[in-house]
Design a protein that fits this description.
- The protein has 15 helices and no strands.
- By secondary structure, it is mainly alpha-helical.
- It has a domain of about 210 residues.
- α7 crosses α8, α7 packs across α11 and α13 packs antiparallel against α14.
- The longest helix has about 35 residues.
- The radius of gyration is 24 Å and the shape is globular.
- The chain starts with 6 loop residues before the first helix and ends in a 16-residue tail after the last helix.
Length: about 350
């Protein structure tokens, strides 16, 4: 049996021992995350090119078309702006300026590319920055929830629409037909639900009340407020139009940037084939295994492009160049955006804790 420590020994114990352990744990976690990111980047940018035979295709870099690269960068920037326009359309009643929304979104976008499974961290940071710009808590909560669903639904819709000409061009394979019919059934159910929404309103209310009563009592008012805000959003025709327009433009401009980077190396790919490969890779990137789908998107997209007839060297160089601006460039931009929100004149608008405004 261990003997209790004497009072003298307790006084001799340094008071900072426990914080030191916490600090060392955080430092070890950050070191591990940085090591994982570096490992994936090395595989992404050094191993994959060798496997695809890009060493023999390095002459393509000397023949790259700089104007195409410039257009690809502009398309990528326009894609990010479209996402912030989506945010602004959902936060239609808030006093936020668009520059504040854009910088908040870019900050969250960059953070999600640094931390493994960083979507939750990025969402929390975006929430804090948007609320600190004088948007209400319930508006931001409903907006982030609606954006999370709307963005991925629009990507699935783009994929489904791209399958229609794919079946004609490449033949009715079993996988294409299964996804196409599943999407058609889902769209039909959604159309019926919209048409019969008055009849479905009462069952939906009962289901929501059932779920609400299963929550802790202190969370019920917040959940009810967010549900009311979501309902108000979805009943607004302008917001519904924004749900169709801006997320779809975000994905299509990103895919167009990929097409341009492939064209910069001399290969003009069929848009339908590119959309199929792009949508499959982006949908698989939802899995929170790596930050921003690093390694997953490249590992799926490059073989997919090669399968559609893109030369191996062009596929690797095009995807790597595209990801340089789509994944890596937003990270330092996010740091600059966050610093701009913390500079004098803005700093007093970002309190130490998120205010509990309703």
């Amino acid at each position: 049996m261990a003997r209790p420590a004497s009072p003298a020994a307790e006084r001799a114990t340094p008071p900072s021992a426990k914080p030191a352990r916490k600090g060392s744990t955080l430092l070890a976690w950050l070191r591990s995350a940085a090591g994982l990111l570096l490992l994936i980047a090395v595989v992404d940018y050094f191993v994959l090119p060798k496997l695809a035979g890009t060493q023999e295709s390095l002459h393509l870099i000397g023949d790259i078309r700089p104007w195409w690269v410039a257009v690809g960068i502009l398309l990528e920037a326009a894609s990010l702006v479209c996402y912030s326009l989506f945010t602004r359309s959902v936060l239609r009643d808030s006093p936020l300026r668009f520059s504040w929304i854009l910088r908040s979104d870019l900050t969250g976008f960059g953070v999600s590319h640094v931390v493994p499974g960083g979507g939750a961290t990025a969402t929390a940071l975006r929430f804090r920055l948007l609320v600190s710009g004088n948007a209400s808590v319930k508006d931001v909560t409903a907006a982030i929830a609606a954006e999370g669903v709307g963005a991925w639904l629009s990507l699935a819709a783009v994929f489904w629409v791209a399958l229609i000409p794919a079946v004609v061009l490449y033949g009715p394979t079993a996988l294409y037909l299964i996804v196409l019919l599943s999407g058609a059934a889902t769209a039909l159910c959604a159309a019926v639900a919209i048409r019969e929404r008055s009849r479905l309103a009462e069952p939906a209310k009962r289901a929501f009340r059932f779920a609400l009563h299963r929550l802790p009592r202190r969370l019920r008012p917040r959940a009810q407020a967010v549900a009311n805000q979501l309902k108000a959003l979805l009943t607004d025709r302008d917001v519904r139009s924004a749900f169709v327009l801006w997320p779809t433009a975000n994905w299509l401009l990103d895919a167009a940037a990929l097409w341009v980077f492939l064209a910069a190396y001399g290969h003009a790919m069929e848009p339908v084939a590119l959309l199929l490969a792009y949508c499959i890779a982006s949908l698989l990137a939802i899995l929170p295994f790596t930050p921003g789908g690093l390694g997953i998107i490249e590992g799926v997209l490059i073989p997919g492009l090669i399968g559609f007839g893109v030369p191996g060297g062009v596929a690797v160089l095009g995807v790597v160049s595209w990801r340089l601006f789509q994944f890596w460039a937003p990270i330092p931009v996010a740091g600059l955006c966050y610093l701009s929100l913390r500079t004098p004149g803005w700093r007093d608008r970002i309190p130490a804790r998120t205010p509990h405004r309703t």
